[in-house]
Fold:
Amino acid sequence: MAGQDFLRLLSWVSPAFPTGGYAYSHGLEWAVERGAVCDVDTLCAWISALLRHGSMGNDLIILHAAWNAGEDDMRLRDIARFACACASSRERYEETIHQGEAFLRAAGVWDVVPPRAALAGVRWPLPVAQGVVFRRGGVACGQAVLSGGYAAVAALVSAAVRLVPLGQTDGLRALSRMEPVVAAVARHAREQTLEDVGGACFGSDLAAMHHETQETRLFRT
Structure:
């Protein structure tokens, strides 16, 4: 990528892009309270498991499927419904659709979003929204999947910096250590289909469920 397309991608994966990602921890807040995540090592182990065996890896498969669907609005609607059905808890569902629909609204500035009629009647999870926007915005397949993975990891590291708390330098160490994992999982996701979606991160799924009744919360999920 070069020039304008690359600048677009930088905007779309920027922490400042208005998806409300700062309000969601993907269950990490409960994991921190329970002591399961308490430093760089445990944070990287938690995120690595989500990428290799859980929801974050599934999201990259879904993003790839949405990118492949391209301009096929009916196929995209089916993928969106499938992604919604994959949410393992109420909070996971709300997190992905609220961020996804905010992502679509914000990306509408670039005129790379399906028409309103094509969007109506379906909720739009974040990885589907990213796949649609990246494809219609000129982002190549490999870079699209990799960018989705980076954005998800960066969001959890940012949450951990505030929750654990980690210092900014330790947050950067975590991002650095996660680079090869994100790259490997993104490559693998491009070889998979929706039939490969599944997971075994029960601790993370339970964390999201427990977070619903957590007494003191900074994050919505």
User: Anything to note?
Assistant: The mean pLDDT is 94.
